[in-house]
Amino acid sequence: MDTIAIPALNRPVDATVEIPGSKSLTNRALLVAALAQGDSVLENALFSEDSEYFAKCVEQLGIPITLNPHLAQIQVAGRGGDIPAKQADLFVGLAGTAARFISALVALGNGEYRLDGVPRMRERPMGDLLTVLEAGGATINFEGNSGFMPYTVYSRQFAGGNFRLKANQTSQQLSALLMIAPYAQQDTNIEVEGTLVSQSYVKMTCRLMADFGVEVIQIGDNQFQIKAGQRYQARHYTVEPDASNASYFFAAAAVTGGRVRVKHLTKQSCQGDILWLNVLEQMGCQIKDSDDYTEVTGPKQLQGIDIDMNDISDLVQTLGAIAPFASSPITIRNVEHIRYKETDRIKAVVTELRRLGVKVEEFPDRLKIEPGPITPAAIETYHDHRMAMAFAVTGLKVPGIVIKDPGCTAKTFPDYFTRFFQMLEQ
Ligand SMILES: O=C(O)C1=C[C@@H](OP(=O)(O)O)[C@@H](O)[C@H](O)C1
Ligand SMILES: C=C(OP(=O)(O)O)C(=O)O
What we know:
Blueprint: E1 3-5, E2 14-17, H1 23-35, E3 37-43, H2 49-60, E4 65-68, E5 73-79, E6 87-91, H3 96-107, E7 110-116, H4 127-135, E8 139-142, E9 151-156, E10 161-167, H5 172-180, E11 188-196, H6 199-211, E12 217-219, E13 223-226, E14 236-238, H7 243-256, E15 259-263, H8 276-282, E16 286-289, E17 293-297, E18 305-308, H9 316-322, E19 330-333, H10 345-355, E20 359-362, E21 367-370, E22 378-379, H11 385-394, E23 402-404, H12 416-425
Parallel strand pairs: 2-15, 3-14, 6-7, 10-11, 18-19, 22-23
Antiparallel strand pairs: 1-23, 3-5, 4-5, 7-9, 8-9, 11-13, 12-13, 15-17, 16-17, 19-21, 20-21
This protein binds shikimate-3-phosphate and phosphoenolpyruvate.
Residues 94-97, 314, 341-342, 386, 412 line the site of phosphoenolpyruvate (PEP).
């Protein structure tokens, strides 16, 4: 297996970097642009496995897409809600957004659509969304376990109506339903039953829908109403840099007592993970922002923190990877749902920190990390891009850390290590 050795840096980083477009925004924009009538152009779009699987699915559904990776641009020739292909065999890799959003998209069609992903995708929850799609007129045929990939959706133009949806394992199923709802035959009301995890991503969904001309009425935290007949407007849309993927570069400033500026990412971002800046501030970093960048300067000594990360859970690994360098323990709470992501992320972080000799306590929905000396090791990444990206930052402080299977960053950040090493050379 391929590995990358991380060179420890015996000085603070001092760098200005650019981060590719947000996965979450690229894939949402692809979906709504496919439903709009006419041509949309997405600028600063992400080119990575997750967005490329997504674009390919849309194209297989008969909606033309032109990819211009050199310009970071994607053109979508939206079909006004029509799904031209009556049959398709769709593959989503390990992209949770593609799995959930494309399953909902095909429910608007009138045909037979098979969906599958990599083995781990077959273990990730789909059932609550599919139950709603069935109540809205589709029939689902599961090849293996009920509620999991692979399956075929036999769709008859999603009817809309009143639904209850569980969203305690992922918010993506709610986002998927919200985005297709304007094209249902009648108004849609969705009541979330119990806890809604990752709420910031639902906010992002509503914001993106509004940016393309569709309104969601939200009542309290848990009820969503979408009027049928609203239509997305085709447009030019610029994707923000990915805030989750910026976290590793800011973390490099934090642990080395250095300075990292991320261009074109601001505190006004619609991505919940911009709150990483607040986390770092609480840990002792200084934050500077303008209308075209944000900059983090690390302290001499990072402080510990006790934090609920339910809303910003893609950052658990980033925090876990820098936790050993804090002056007091780090407790990360309310993140049981990260056990259903690319890997069981609580287990993966705990296992890899212990491999480095760090004392960690694991609970069903949280972890507590005791700062302490690190024994260098080769880090397992479990096909999870965030394990590779986060633990590379740990390697800046301790000679001898190696990242296994660094190619797994291709899921959302194919040239992560190139940019990471460029940061170190500045
Ligand atoms: O809607 C989205 O774009 C995402 C929602 C979150 O997932 P969950 O809702 O499954 O927590 C997040 O972890 C994922 O990277 C992207
Ligand atoms: C959880 C993630 O991805 P997915 O969209 O596959 O859920 C992630 O990118 O950290």
